[in-house]
Write a structure and sequence with these properties.
Length: about 190
């Protein structure tokens, strides 16, 4: 079974994007599609980026744990809110900390907002950052508009049937890229 991590990018108090991370964890486990782990940036409390992990003489246990989780993942669902047209500094900080760990890592991006645009304004900037470090961003998106109205705090969607249909397409695309990468690595 594949190992898929869900990277919950927001560290904000009262964050709503984490609801989508919880949804994907439940969806993947209930459908027995993967072994799932949430990598919650709020739990890591990283210092502001000073240097890539490989150049830090005394990295924290959190930094090493984060790098290990990314490395062990066959693929990642990145759940990011949109803040003023961009993605949060916590995510940029975490992306920049690593380098080789992201190389050719299949990543599916779920964008989230409180407004009607579903975080779609953030997609270009996050894809560019991931592309620059060699990650494989899959050509599927999972935009979520008005998240506080469409998902409860436990990740349960209001319209489960429609949400699961969208998730199936999104997750299947990620799994295809994971399997393609695994074939190329052999």
């Amino acid at each position: 079974m594949k190992n898929i991590s869900i990277l919950s990018a927001s560290v904000r108090n009262g964050r709503n994007s984490h609801r989508v991370a919880l949804y994907f964890k439940n969806y993947l486990e209930e459908n027995q599609l993967a072994n799932v782990k949430i990598i919650d940036l709020k739990e890591y409390n990283f210092p502001i980026f000073e240097e890539r992990l490989r150049f830090i003489s005394n990295p924290t246990e959190a930094m090493l744990s984060f790098a290990d989780e990314v490395t062990k993942s066959d693929g990642i669902i990145l759940v990011t809110p949109e803040y003023n047209g961009g993605y949060p500094a916590s995510l940029k900080n975490a992306i920049d900390l690593l380098y080789a760990e992201w190389k050719r890592k299949p990543i599916a991006i779920a964008t989230v907002s409180a407004g009607a645009f579903a975080g779609t304004q953030v997609i270009t900037s996050i894809q560019f950052s991931l592309w620059k470090i060699g990650a494989l961003t899959v050509p599927a998106m999972f935009p979520v508009a008005t998240v506080e109205k469409t998902f409860d705090e436990n990740g349960k969607p209001n319209d489960e049937e429609a949400t699961n249909k969208r998730a199936s397409s999104f997750v299947n695309e990620l799994i295809w890229w994971i399997e393609a990468k695994q074939k190329m690595d052999t």
